[in-house]
């Protein structure tokens, strides 16, 4: 029992950086989709934000401010573009999102190889920082505080209510005086910058290396997507699902050493659980209790008319 408890506590502590990354990405994604924007670009955004954090680490000497600020700003700009296009023009959210995702995969590959070559000439350099026990605990507590603040912001503030109204029925919200475009741009600025911060946290606090398998091919952006969906995009519930998946992902990497199972099988386990969790959400009363915005992904085009 003591050995099992010690092992669990070790996983809990070691996965702290990944938990911060998953929660920031899933919460940001939830805020974006609360406004009615279907975000299928999330995995590309994760890859690009982690790559930009690595780029800043190498070229600016592990300046964490720049390493977090650069991906947050760049991903927010992409997100603002996406929010503007899907609101002002009658275009498919999915088509825009997937196009941006593949664009960001390409940018990640192009941007990542340069600093990786430079890092090879710096044998004592490692991107990011190694978190102490106290810093990992502080990370957990900070995310709890952020979840409470996010719940208050979405449910109790005028801006949050406008964002939700824009996601439920943008036409009705517009008729009631809500500026749908402005509300979605605010949601995009907040949500997409958080996705950028999540990718930076993954690079600086957890993986601390760049290669295509660890970043572009990891699929962790899609895990953040499933974390948000299975948590009903509710800030407090998403906190729990982020916690579960961070432990699951981190422990799955240990299964190879512990039980000798294949690397491919251990890597696939979190994604299998993600499919199961989304199925449970869709097939149970959770779908009603934590319902998706009714206008999520629907084309909304406010055509100008003259009388």
TrEMBL record:
The protein's matches in InterPro entries, at most eight in alphabetical order, are given as: ABC_transp_permease
| Protein keywords | Cell membrane, Membrane, Transmembrane, Transmembrane helix
Which GO terms of the cellular component aspect does the record hold? plasma membrane
CDD domains to which the protein is assigned, alphabetical = TM_PBP1_transp_TpRbsC_like
Alphabetical list of Pfam families matching this protein: BPD_transp_2 (PF02653)
| Any one GO molecular function term | transmembrane transporter activity
Topology relative to the lipid bilayer, per the entry, is:
Multi-pass membrane protein
What are the subcellular locations of this protein? Cell membrane
TM segment ranges:
6-25, 37-56, 68-86, 98-117, 137-154, 185-207, 213-229, 236-261, 267-284
Q: Which domain of life is it from?
A: Archaea
Protein's name according to its UniProt entry: ABC transporter permease
Give the originating organism.
Answer: Thermogladius calderae
């Amino acid at each position: 029992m003591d050995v099992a408890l010690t092992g669990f506590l070790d996983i809990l502590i070691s996965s702290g950086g990944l938990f911060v990354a998953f929660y920031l990405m899933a919460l940001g994604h939830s805020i974006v989709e609360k406004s009615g924007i279907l975000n299928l670009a999330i995995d590309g955004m994760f890859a690009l934000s982690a790559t930009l954090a690595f780029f800043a680490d190498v070229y600016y000497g592990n300046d964490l401010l720049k390493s977090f600020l650069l991906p947050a700003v760049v991903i927010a700009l992409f997100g603002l573009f996406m929010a503007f296009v899907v609101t002002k023009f009658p275009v498919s959210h999915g088509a825009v999102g997937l196009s941006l995702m593949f664009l960001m995969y390409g940018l990640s590959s192009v941007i990542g190889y340069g600093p990786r070559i430079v890092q090879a000439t710096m044998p004592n350099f490692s991107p990011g920082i190694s978190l102490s026990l106290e810093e990992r605990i502080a990370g957990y507590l900070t995310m709890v505080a952020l979840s409470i603040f996010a719940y208050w912001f979405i449910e109790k503030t005028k801006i949050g209510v406008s964002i939700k109204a824009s996601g439920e029925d943008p036409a009705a919200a517009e008729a009631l005086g809500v500026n749908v475009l402005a509300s979605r741009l605010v949601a995009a600025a907040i949500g997409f910058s958080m996705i950028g911060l999540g990718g930076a946290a993954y690079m600086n606090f957890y993986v601390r290396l760049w290669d295509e398998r660890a970043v572009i091919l990891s699929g962790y952006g899609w895990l953040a997507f499933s974390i948000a969906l299975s948590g009903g995009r509710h800030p407090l519930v998403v906190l729990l699902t982020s916690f579960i998946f961070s432990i699951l992902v981190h422990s799955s990497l240990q299964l190879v050493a512990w039980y000798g199972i294949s690397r491919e099988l251990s890597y696939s386990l979190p994604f299998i659980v993600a499919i199961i969790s989304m199925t449970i959400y869709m097939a149970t009363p959770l779908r009603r209790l934590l319902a998706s915005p009714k206008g999520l992904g629907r084309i909304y085009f406010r055509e100008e008319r003259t009388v």
